[in-house]
Structures are given as C-alpha cells and as structure tokens.
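Input chain follows. Return structure tokens only.
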Amino acid sequence: MSGYDPGGGDQPSRGSTPDLTSLQENFSQQQAKITALRELVRATESAQGKKTASAQEKVKNIAQRLTQYKTKATKSRLSRASSSEVDLMSTRINEETTEVEVDSSFANISGVAYEEQQHMSLPVAMSSRARSETPGNEKVNLLRQQMEQNRLKMAARESQKREVEERVIELKHKLEASQHTLEQSTAEFGRSTGDLSGLLLGPPAVTPIKMGRFEFNKSTSDLTQMVAGGGGLTSSLEVERLRYLEGRVKVLEQELATQPSSDERVKELERKILDLEEALKEKECVIEARTQAVSLMTENLTAKGRNTVDLLEDTKQEMLRMQQNFVQAEASLKQELDRLQVELDERSAKVSNLEEMNNILETARYDLTVENSTLRQSLEDVQDFATKISELNKLNQSLQHRITELEGSRYEFITDAEVEQARREGESDERVRELEERVRELEEGGDLAEKVRSLEATIEAQREQLEGQSKVYEELQEQLQEKTVELNVLNANFSVLQEKLKTAGPKQLFPKSAEEEAEGETSKLKQQLDEANKGAIKSKLKIKQLQKQVDSFKKTSAVHEEVVRLTEEVQTLTQRLAEVEEEKGNLQLHLVNYDG
C-alpha cells in the first residue's frame, strides 16, 4: 500500500477555498440587497395606492361640503331677499365671500387633483422607479401638509364668514330696535298731539302715525302755536304735559342724530369687501407659489427615480457576472469535494481501527474498575476483620483480668468445714449474703462465655474466608504465569511480523499481480500485527490486575498469622472459662447445702 500523506493534499485547496467563500458571500449580499429593494418597491407602491385612495376620498368630502355651502348660501339669499337694504348688502357680502372661498378651495383641490393625476399618469415603470426610494414618501407628506393647510384655511374663512354674518345680524337687530323705538315714540307723540289738538281745536290737524323727523319739528311748532293761540283755555296740568312731550321729542331727536346713517354702513361693508378681496389675492399668490414648489418636487422625484433605475440595471449586470463566477467556483468546488471525500474515506478507516482499540481499552478499564471495586471491598473486609481482632484483644485482656480475679478469689471460697464451723459458731446472716453476692458475680461472668463463643464463630468464618482467598491466590498465580507465557509468544510473533514487513516493503520491481499479492500479504500482516498489539495490551492489563491481587493477598497473609495467634489465645481463654464454670458449680452446690 502507498502511504497517503494527509497533510500534503490540503495545500492546493487552501488557495481556492477563500476565493470561493468570498464569492459566495458577495453573491449572498447582492441577493439580500435585491430582495430588500424589491420589498421597498412593493411597500412604496402599496403606500402610494393607499394614499391616493385617501386623497380621492378627501376631495370627494370637500366637494360635498362646498355643495352644502352653496345650498346654504342660496337659502340665505332667498330668505334675505325680502329684508331691507342693509340685509341685501350683507347677503351680497356673504355670497361674495362664499364664492371666493369656494373658488379658492376648488383651486386648491384642482391643484392637488392635477398633481395627483400627473403623478398617476406617469408610466408604470417610472412610478415603480420613483417609488423605489424614500423621496416618494416625502412628496406624499408634502401633499398631506398642503391638504392640512387648505383645511385650516377653509376653517379660518368659515370663521371669518361667521363673524361677518354675526356682525351684520347685530347691525340688523340694532336697526330694527331703533326703528321700533322710533315708531313707538312717534305713536306716543301722535297720540299726545291728537289729544291736545282734540282738547284745544277739536279734530286733529295732523295724523301722527308714521311721522318722520321733519314732521316732528312741524308738530312741535304747531303745538307751540296752538298753545300760544289758546292760552286762556289751558290749565297747569296741560302745560306740564306739553313740557314732558317736548323733552321726549328732544331726546328722540338726539338718539336719531347719534345713530349712523345707512350710507356709512354701506361704506364700511364695501371697505370690508375690498379687504377680503385683497386677502384672497394674497392667498392665491401663495397657492401659486406652492404649486410651483410641488412641480419642482415632482421633477426631482422623477430624476431620482431614473437614477434608481440605472442603479438597478447596474446591479443586475453585476449579478450576472457574479452568477458566472459562482458557476465556475462551484465546478472547482465539486472537484475539491471529490478529492476530500476520498481522503475522508481513508481517514474514516483509520478512525474505525482506532475506535476498536479504544473499545478494547475501555473494556480493560471497566475490568480494572470492577477489580478495583472488589479489592476495595476485600480491603474493607480486612479492615473490619482488624477491628474485630482489636475487639478480641480487648475482650481477651478483660477475660484475663477476670480470670486473675477469679483465681485470686478461688482461695477465699468457703469450704464445707468452714460452713459447719460457721453453723456451730452461730454466725449471722451477713456471711450468707456475702456468699450470695459472690455467686451472682460468678453468674454474671457466664455472659463472658457467650461472648467468647460468638468470637469463636466469627474467627472460624474468617478462617474459612482466608482459606478461600489463599486458593484464589494460587489460581491467580497460575493464570499470571500462563499470561506471561502468552505475552512472550505474542512479542516473538510481533518481532517476526515486523521483520517480514521490512523485507516485503522496498520490493517494487514485481509485476502488477505480484504487487497486488504483496499488498494483500502486507495488509494481512498489518491485521495480524494489530491483533497482536491488542492481545499484548489485554495481557499486560491482566498481568497488572493479577499483580495487584497478589500484593493484596501478601498483605492479608500477615492478617492470617494474627488470626491464628488470636485463635490460640481464645482456646486458652475457653479452657480457663471452663475451669471457672466448674468452680461456679461447686460454689452453688455449697450454697445449696448451706441453705439446707
């Protein structure tokens, strides 16, 4: 087999992959820009459609309002046709102001509608071009501002119109009130003059109803003449009445003099009309200037739309070039991918071999963990056994101490002769109580026998366990020897295989069939070598485990010796305890005899 170098195949691919990635990034960026531009165009088209529909609805509403204003103006014109000259002048002023407002509003609406028609009459391509950028929104905002300004102007004009109407109505009411007061005063004056003329001369000389200013002067002069001619017939009451009437007439004349004439009112209304006409002219000039500004804005928008179309065409050409470059890069990338796939297959084979080795090592690790756990368990058992041995030592010491006490008290036991002598001498019951207490102490010592028996049972169990461990130790030693032999055999085979590989490697002059056979043999030899390596690893791990177990059993051998020594001590203690129990029985018999 030709040894493939994984590092050498990556050198030509390092120079081509960055160019390809940069081309892909540029292509993706261009596509993102195109999609964003398309979305902007769609959004602007939808917004323009909505705004044109709302503008048309607003124009319809304004037209309806203007028709309503016209109908109201005609109604007011008909209702005021039968009034006085002041009413006619006020209605003319109202009609002129309403007509001016209607004309100005229609001019504004027509200007806006004309701009909208111009904007809608552009071709679809130009509209899409103009809508591709944000100045289209600025144009719509300007149109909205103009519509709001026109609304404010209409509202201001309506308020001015209402103020003029209110002023005219106030003047009308004042004139009507003054006329009414004049009529009342003339009627009263006529009645008074009629009464005076009836009293003085009989029938009245003048009809007092609907008398003017000059008739008042005439009637007063006639009254003075009549009073002067018939002075002999008047009384003091009539003179006072005449004076009152003269004062009343003077007051009415002063009121008539203070009130302005109808000519002055007409002049004031004409002045107001002229002022309104001048204001309308100024507003028309402002509207014309704004229409010119709107036309300039539309021209700017069309120019910007053309620029955006040019930019879109340039981007399309760039996209075509990018697509061509992308196709070329894709072909080279496919070749590179094929080469990398071959390399990946070879490396995957190597990875599979390494995974097998890893699995073997993992199983060995698991076996080691299991053995470690068992060794820990055995170590814990040994520690427990050591604690039990320490307890046995303590118990042994306590038993020895007890035995020494019992041996010391053995010579103090009461004999039959002493009991008979005590009976003869007539000792008190205190001696009997002392003997009973000693018997109780000996009975309590019987619990120590039970403890010793339990310790004997545990010692026998530990002894059996140690015997089993010694057998296992012998078996493990045998297995260790076998594994060492196998390891030596595998090492020998491994060295032989390496020599064969060295001898089979450099030969290259064989024909093709011989080369294939040599490659097959080398592959087989490599497989055998891998298997031998695996077996060697397993055997080494097993040897380590066995060595650890041997060390642990060596440690436990010292414990076994300690157990043997303790068992011997326990046997001696049991013998002493049997002797103590016999002495205890003898004491009980002596006590029974003593009680009898």
